Amino acid sequence: MNEGQMLLSKRIVSIDILRGLVMVIMALDHTRDFFHIEAMTSDPLNPDTTSGILFFTRWITHFCAPTFVFLSGLSAFLSAQNKTHSQASAFLFKRGLWLIFVEIAIVTLGLTFNPTYNFIILQVIWAIGFSMILLAIFSRISYSLVLIIGLILVFGHNIFNLFPPPKDESISLILKVFFTAFGTVVPLGGNHFVGVFYAILPWTGIMFLGYAAGLWFSKDYNPVKRNRNLLNFGALALVLFVALRLLSIYGDPAPRKEYHDLAKNLLSFFNVSKYPPSLQYTSMTIGVALLLLALIESATNKLSKVLSVFGSVPFFYYILHFYLLHTILIALFFLEGNTTAQIIQMPFFFRPVAFGYNLWVVYSIWILVVASLYYPCKWFKKYKATHNNWWLRYL
User: Fold this and answer.
1) pTM of structure
2) Contacts of 50 by beta carbon, 8 Å cutoff, 6+ apart
3) Which helix (H) or strand (E) holds 310?
4) How confident is the model at residue 389, as a pLDDT?
């Protein structure tokens, strides 16, 4: 292995470490959704009603989706280096379609455990899949076009917050799905609904910027310059976040609130909008992600090795953790004395509104789930490394 290949290998490991970290933190948020007593009845980010630990438990998971989407774009760039433009585009297009199917058929079932699919949930995998389809189209045209569109989407999509929504229902629905969706529920007829929780194009912008940043990780790119870029742009993004947050004029649909309480003001300052990912939210989260990419590139400790296992098989981990969480939920549901008559809840089966535990139980279940998934992920990582089956590229 030559020096360039060794550097590329190290950089890919650093990507896996960061991706593994956000996958582990992500599981905390989903564990809270399933098992916290207040998950269905209160907003953990509301400074008026939350506690410091509950706010942190939800807030820290803000970094997961944007970092994962950004790294998906970055990985798409690296994957394309060994393919022709047409091959790379075709793969992205097919993988995008596959991920949309997975969101509808597999992730929705893991979330709801409702075999009749009364409520289809479109979240981050749907947004990634659709964004990959768009990336397949625009990356085939030019790298520069991907970068320009990414910047326009990330910096410009909050302009829709400055205008009233259109009165035409069809146009309003299209605008919600592509730009502003948060909890948009679309009836399909009868007793079936689709919940659009991730607006597509703001996440597409993040993926496109990740794809553009992939250039820094190509094997011929100067590693010192790459590290400097990561540090500089990461710091710049955080400065932008602080400036926009202090001005509170543009970049988030929910302006910062002022309280006569220092603690509440601090919580309010960091309470930025994820649905859709506002410019302030994206600056905060991607800024930290860029800094971490620079700092963990040479990490070789035990924790980094564990995280890299999760990060090397994120799709496998993501699917398994939902089904494991819901299986534990079912066990606790019956242990709590609930009956089969109480199974059917909307949108999640086996999850009554009044069900749940304190945060220490949530954290305990989270640690148990993550630890339980380590060896299956380690096995699958080894399996992928020793097999060349075509379908493994989609997992």
Assistant:
1) 0.94
2) 42, 43, 44, 267
3) helix 302-312
4) 85
